[in-house]
Design goal:
- The protein has 3 domains: 166 residues, Orthogonal Bundle (Triger factor/SurA peptide-binding fold); 114 residues, Chitinase A, domain 3 (Roll), CATH 3.10.50.40; 98 residues, Chitinase A, domain 3.
- The chain is 47% helix and 16% strand.
- It contains 17 helices and 13 strands.
- It has a 4-stranded antiparallel sheet with strand order 9-4-11-10, sandwiched between helices. Strands 5-8-7-6 form a 4-stranded antiparallel sheet, with helices on both faces.
Amino acid sequence: MMYRLLFACLLLSSGLFAQQQIDRVVALVGNEPILVSDIEAQYRLLLSRTKEAPPENARAVILDQLLTNAVVLAEAERDSFTVSAVEIEGQLDSRISEILRYMNNDPEQFKAYYGKTPEEVKNDMRESMRKQMVVQRMSANIMQSVTVTPKEVQTFFSKIPEDSLPYFNSTVELAQIVIKPKVNDKEDERARQEAERIRQEILNGADFAELAKQYSQDPGSGARGGDLGITNRGSFVPEFEAAAYQLDENEVSELVKSQYGYHIIQLLERLGNNIHTRHILIKAELTPADEERAKNEADSIRSLILLDSFTFDQAVQRFSEDEFSKTRNGAMMNPQTGEPYWELGDLSPEVYFAIEKLKKGEISEAIEYSTPFGEKEYTLIKIRNRTIPHVANLQDDYSRIQMAAKEEKKSRYIQEWVAKKIDDHYVEFKFQSLGSYADFFIKKNGQAKNPQLQRWMMEP
């Protein structure tokens, strides 16, 4: 659990590191700087994840990855590859909420630790989060065609020395079907009327920003008077975007309904194909009866699976409302590892007690679960595999080894892709201004001390 907190904290560490007056530019890829703090944040994360001392070239490996990310980012922006403002805000809210949970949801404790309020830290993180998400999405797009054959998995496993085979603790591989409660018509109508009342106040001359601060239920923009900043096409959900792009400057929209609730949108300015907007979001609230209906639906799906009306995998595609796991055939991913394998100690209490006595292939009762945003969901969990502590082998751990083989192949693929793109981008090292810190990367003759950095060195 401590590692999860440390990971969340390290996401904020670049700014804190800079405050220590030692931040300097290591390299430039185009106009994108790579800082000492970027390297040190990742180095600290590495330290938190292993009990062994990192290899001597660890910082050079980190720098190589940061340079790779910078090229991917530059290519993504050249191709106008974006992520939406809604997605960025969702990630920021999730990260900040996770940290606050470990601080007993005490904003004052948060401020004492970071020297800033949660909202100020979110503002500081927003651009770096955007870049991180663009790199992740672009990398996934580049590598989407990478697959591994059973023969490649066997070859990958055979190359691991016997004395280096990993030892796995008892683990479970989980899949899920998620059912989300749906707001009833009466509550939906209440939210619509509330949003319409606020809209009429604006049309009658009330200050939009003040009403946003008072009423908006968008945790990201409400405190900023509803301001969503300057965005390009593809940044918002379709309903919001379609309405926003039809507005004239300073015009206030009709009510716009999306999956998040009712929006009141105002276009502040249009900059070519980009727009600057603000909004007020009013959400309909779930009632206990809405939640009970969702639980009953989950129970019914479980009963139908047990009666062989359809398989669990078919039910995932037909009923599950969690798009992330649905696209992975229901796989319930461990956020600490990015894999669908969980050591029992990594499971939340509600999941642990629900699956503790289940055998491979069995399905849990419906579990009530609260998301990081406090929203209730009902989840059915299937045990796809369950192991006792053992040395890795192809019979028990094929899918795990397959994933490792695929990741190794992806790593080679992205490195080859980047190698073809390096010449398209200006890359400059700034080691001359770093003093002894440069010893991590180069010798005095200017040649790369670590081979993986040699390809990045500019010709004299």
